[in-house]
Amino acid sequence: MQWLLDILRGIVIGLSNIIPGVSGGTMAVSMGIYDRLINDITHLFKRFRRSVIDILPIGIGIVVGIFAFSALIGSLLGVSIPWEADLSSSSAPFTQTRLTATDVVNGGMTEIRLTHGEDAATLTKTGENSWTFADQNGHQKTLTGSSLKFKRVNDTYQVELSPVTPPLTKMPTIFAFIGLIVGGLGVIFRRVRMKDFKLGGWAVFAAFFALVVVLPLLSIPRAQTASASFGSILLMVLLGAIASATMVIPGVSGSMVLMLLGYYEAVIGSLNSLRGGDFSSLVILAPFGVGIVLGLFLIAKLISTLIEKAPTMTFAAILGLVLGSPIALLIQNSECFSVANVANWAISILCLAAGAAVAWLLSRLDRSEA
Q: Of 1, 80, 148, 221, which has the fewest CB atoms closer than 10 Å, so is most exposed?
């Protein structure tokens, strides 16, 4: 039973790491297992067998949450959707399972019509390695040719790109994760002695609360793609370390940081490509994974030391980060409100309540961990 609960908790943490604005560390706190994770990671080599047995089901859940649901979450959030690409005007019919932008250009095509339901758009080659994506409303963005991958589905080809407008599923998904955060606040308040904050504690709380709220207000650069060059591999190791560090720190979203750095869609696209059998994406994901492991050990040790040496200040910072997360999440995804209708709001509120109930239940099932 304990293993199953830990796998479920791990799945929630894994899912949270996919959502820009949601912190895996926050979810670990909400699930009541944050201290366990930090303790197991920092003492892995001192008590290897015990730590591995304790952390293994959570790790399994995290991997399942990331790999099994990355495409679903990406679709619900509108990170990417399958646009049907009209490649019928090529000089010769394409028969390959997968195509790159270079293959399409070699087929004599520099402009591609795209459709997704009632939405329509065009992809136009505008430079050596650049394409312009334009929708029917005149909205445009620039993409790199190396980021375009066409996959054969039945008799047509599809390319994964962001939708023209946020889907109606985005706001309920965001509200569900806000519910997960809110539902786990009791775990933090049982640990925090707010009467000990005094002036210094409240200053730390305010600083970290402001930090997580200000992050989504920064200018978000367009998504980039990573190549197989040596420099790019080193960069992915560094990005993995940064992402894992923010996963460990409650309230700071690793996905949001990747988005701020411009590599969120590159990583999510690589995960989806790997799920689809494209093992070339391991060129990006393998060094990224190495960086994640390195970052986890380094930051977990730092957090463990801070909790031991300065618990009041540490939990003041954690509380500020966690309480700021729902606000940051709403700011990060404010475009949802422009398309939401009454039914969408009703469903979102239900998802908020459901998320809070799930977090509350998982944090209560094993009170010894809280």
A: 1
- Which among 14-28, 34-48, 89-103 has the top mean pLDDT? 89-103
Instruction: Match 């957090």 to its residue by tokens.
Output: 303
User: Are 265 and 223 spatial neighbours (Cβ–Cβ below 8 Å)?
Assistant: yes
Task: Check pLDDT > 90 for residue 358.
Answer: no
Please spell the DSSP secondary structure of 82-137, one letter per residue.
Answer: EEEEE-TTSSS----SEEEHHHHHHTT-SEEEEEETTEEEEEEE-SSSEEEEEETT
Per-residue tokens: 213: 């709220």
Long-range CB contacts for residues 133-141, cutoff 8 Å, separation at least 24: 133/161, 135/164, 136/164, 137/164, 139/164, 141/222
Q: Tally the C-alpha atoms within 13 A of residue 309's C-alpha that lie toward its C-beta.
A: 6
- What 8-state DSSP symbol labels residue 250? T
Distance of CA 79 to the CA centre of its chain: 10
Residue found under tokens 């005094």: 198
| pLDDT per residue as tens digits for the range 319-339 | 887 788 788 888 877 888 888
Cβ 109 vs Cβ 87: under 8 Å: yes
161 or 219: which carries more pLDDT confidence? Answer: 161
Under 8 Å between Cβ of 182 and 295: no
The per-residue pLDDT for 349 is: 96
pTM: 0.66
**d(Cα 255, Cα 128) in Å, to the nearest integer?**
30
Cα separation, 25 vs 253, in Å, equals 8
Evaluate whether 19 touches 255 at the Cβ level (below 8 Å): yes
What distance in Å separates the CA atoms of residue 140 and residue 362, rounded to the nearest whole number?
44
